Amino acid sequence: MKMFKAIAFFSLATAILTSACSTSKTAKSNHLSNYSPVSKDLYDTIARLDAVFFNAFNTRNFDKLKILLSDNLEFYHDLGGVTNYNQNIEAFKKTFESDRKVRRELVESSLEVYPIKDYGAVETGIHRFYATEKGEQEKLSSEAKFVQVWQKKDGEWKITRIISYGHQEYLK
């Protein structure tokens, strides 16, 4: 009888967990599948710029990264506070000079882009950061949601605002 109760309890718990997990997955994928860009051209442009920006970050190409940031950049980070252009430039320099390598990866299908009339676009998504300490394997460091505001001025796109929030830290 004890064995039957244990099996029944385990089966019920498994069913509840499976149902809960599939429900949240479904809700998330429904949200993502309902997104449709207002402008495919704008979406493609911002997706390409995001890739260029973070490729520069991942390869430590300071000059390439710097040209995509506006001089009036404001970066809002839920764990780090608010920083400006100069503070971010210094932070990127230190990061690139460090023995610890950091790599950013966009979570597939999380990217959304919306136009901002007479200004540019807002980009939202989820990204993950991976860290590699000298002589060690790469490890997932953190995951966060982000918002980037892009301004198109004189034919050039630059990031003017970054908001990074909802961090899940995996390394201490």
In words, what does this structure look like?
This protein is an alpha+beta fold and 172 residues long. Helices cover 41% and strands 38% of the residues. The chain is built from four helices and seven strands; from the N terminus they run αααββαβββββ. Strands 1, 2, 3, 4, 5, 6 and 7 form a seven-stranded mixed β-sheet that branches.
Number of helices: 4
Unreliable stretches covering 5 or more consecutive residues: 1-32
Mind summarizing the main beta sheet? 7 strands, mixed
The proportion of strand residues reads 35-45%
What is the residue-mean pLDDT, rounded to a whole number? 85
Shape: globular
- How do the helices and strands follow one another from N- to C-terminus? HHHEEHEEEEE
Helix content: 40-55%
Helix/strand-derived category reads alpha+beta
Core attributes:
single chain, 172 residues, 4 helices, 7 strands, seven-stranded mixed β-sheet, globular, disordered N terminus, alpha+beta
Overview in brief:
This protein has 172 residues and is α+β, with helices and mostly antiparallel strands. It contains 4 helices and 7 strands.
Q: Secondary-structure blueprint of this entry?
A:
Layout: H1 2-34, H2 40-58, H3 62-66, E1 69-77, E2 81-84, H4 85-97, E3 101-106, E4 112-116, E5 120-132, E6 139-153, E7 156-169
Parallel strand pairs: 1-7
Antiparallel strand pairs: 1-2, 3-5, 4-5, 5-6, 6-7
